[in-house]
Amino acid sequence: MKIRNQTRRDFVWSSVRAGGALGVLGAFGPLACAPAGEGGADGPGPQRILILGGTRFIGPYQVKYALDRGHEVSIFTRGRTEPPFFHDYFERVEHLIGDRDNDLSALEGRQWDAVIDNSASIPRWVAMTTDLLRGNADRYLFVSSISAYADFAAVGIDEGYPAGQLSSPDVEDMSEYGPMKARCEAINTEVFGDGAINVRPGLIIGAGDNTDRWTYWPVRVARGGEVLAPNSPTDPVQYIDARDLSEWIVRLVETPGNAGTYNATGEMQRFGDMLEEIRAALGSDATFTWVPTDFLTEHDVRPWGHLPNWVPPEGETIGMNQVSVAAAVQAGLTFRPIGDTARETVEWWNSLPEERRAEPGAGLPAEKEAEVLAAWAAEG
After folding, report:
1. Dihedral sign, CA of 354, 360, 366, 368?
2. Phi then psi for 267, rounded to 5 degrees?
3. Alpha-carbon span 91 to 51, nearest angstrom
4. What is the per-residue pLDDT for 106?
5. Is 73 helix (H, G, I), strand (E, B) or coil?
6. CA-to-CA distance for 42 and 235, rounded, in angstroms?
7. For the packed helices 58-68 and 242-254, what is the interaxial angle rounded to 10 degrees?
């Protein structure tokens, strides 16, 4: 049975939105630069860096990398979240306690060379912190999302593509996550000008991801056997390793001259190549059965939610996994092999408590996968 185009389009978009926004909402190789102290006269010198957030997913990687490069690090959090790793590094940072919503007093009267804002999706929060830190920091980097774009109806979207617009100026509803991110960017640029940097990640992956989105794929491939794969091995896919993103962000704020907006998802890859590289890295006996989009839709297999990091490359979602990262690459963003990310993700996943692994936040349940594979096989 075929699904009418309009029905399938609505199904795809509702699935993507139900699966969570892209980027750091939760949204986690080779280094382009040597650590401070090893770079000689070319090193940036010690910087005072304030991280708003810092204990979840990309934050610990930023903390470790910044400290390894000789910088002084302060983090501003509510003091409620234990970082998943690098605990010894957190003994070396300054902990400032407060709340983005109503208590910034710990930031008052302080100065830093650079600010990394990991934790805001509400424009009011960015307005409050940029207003307070204006004149007390030289550079302000806001971690946004490619969800800031108005749509993904084009291939090769770059930073000049139209951004989403809020339904009203004061909206604070996560159903408008993308437009809110876009407004946060605009506030940063308005306040910090030549010191404003806006980074738009796609899906962030790797050890420490509390959303379990991309984690599904290496964990499922490691289990082996017949794996349901989406549509076609030639479908595009993009992602960014949390370490690659975090380390590049630190390098961006180390020195002046990097102002602007950057897409920061990975280089485009074919989905089949991604799965093959994961299989090779893990030494798995997995085989992949590619099931067409229409059949997946008929059996209520949701893009992005059940099959993370995949949406049909057509219509309104054709460009979601085909975003241009040329500007970021020119600014020093690098990418490690996906096999490295897969191995470390599985190792981290296997270290989690059994009860945590028993209820993953994303992916296709084993029973449903077997049911759909059997139905597809019966189609002949």
Report:
1. positive
2. -65, 145
3. 15
4. 98
5. strand
6. 42
7. 50
The answer to whether 209 and 217 have CB atoms below 8 angstroms apart is no
Give every CB contact of residue 229 below 8 A, 6+ residues apart in sequence.
271, 272, 275, 288, 289, 290, 291
Residue 23: the pLDDT is: 39
Give the pLDDT of residue 367.
Answer: 97
Q: Mean pLDDT for each consecutive 10-residue tract of the chain (380 residues)? A: 42 49 34 33 80 96 98 97 95 97 97 97 98 98 98 97 96 96 98 98 96 96 98 98 98 96 97 98 98 97 96 95 98 98 98 96 97 94
Q: Supply the pLDDT for residue 18.
A: 47
Q: Which domain holds residue 171?
A: 5-378
Q: In angstroms, what CA-CA distances link 197 with 61, 150, 284?
A: 19, 20, 41
Q: Is the dihedral of CA 355, 357, 363, 369 positive or negative?
A: negative
**DSSP code per residue over 87-135:** HHHHTTSEEEE-BTTTB-GGGTT--EEEEEE-S--SHHHHHHHHHHHBT
Task: Give me the phi and psi of 39, to 5 degrees please.
Answer: -95, 0
- The predicted pLDDT at position 66 comes to 98
Q: Hey, how many other C-beta atoms are within 10 angstroms of the C-beta on 156?
A: 11
pLDDT at 380: 74
CATH of the domain at 130: 3.40.50.720
- The pTM of this model reads 0.90
123-133 helix and 177-192 helix, angle to the nearest 10 degrees: 20
Neighbour count for residue 231 (Cβ, 10 Å): 21
β-strand 236-237 against 269-270: which pairing, if any? Answer: antiparallel
The number of folded domains in the chain is 1
String of DSSP letters for 178-246? HHHHHHHHHHHHHHHGGGEEEEEE--EESTT-TT-TTTHHHHHHHH-SEEEEES-TTSEE--EEHHHHH
